[in-house]
Amino acid sequence: MKKVITYDELLDKIPNKYTLTITAGKRARDIGRGAPVLTKVSKKDTIVMKTFREILDDKVTFGEQREEDLNEQE
Fold this sequence. Notes:
Elements: H1 7-13, H2 17-32, H3 47-56, H4 67-73
Helix pairs in contact: 2-3
């Protein structure tokens, strides 16, 4: 049986709770749309649990966009 994932463990990887929520939500949406899972998971795991395991395994991270990058996108 796999170890239970705690909120504190996730916050160790992504220290801001709002950024954690957005990052996990976007990744869960990607997995739901058919993106491959980047870490070893059980078939019984939900999409959210798969996402959390990826975050704990450092397969999913967040990055801040620089102002220059935002201006280039416009």
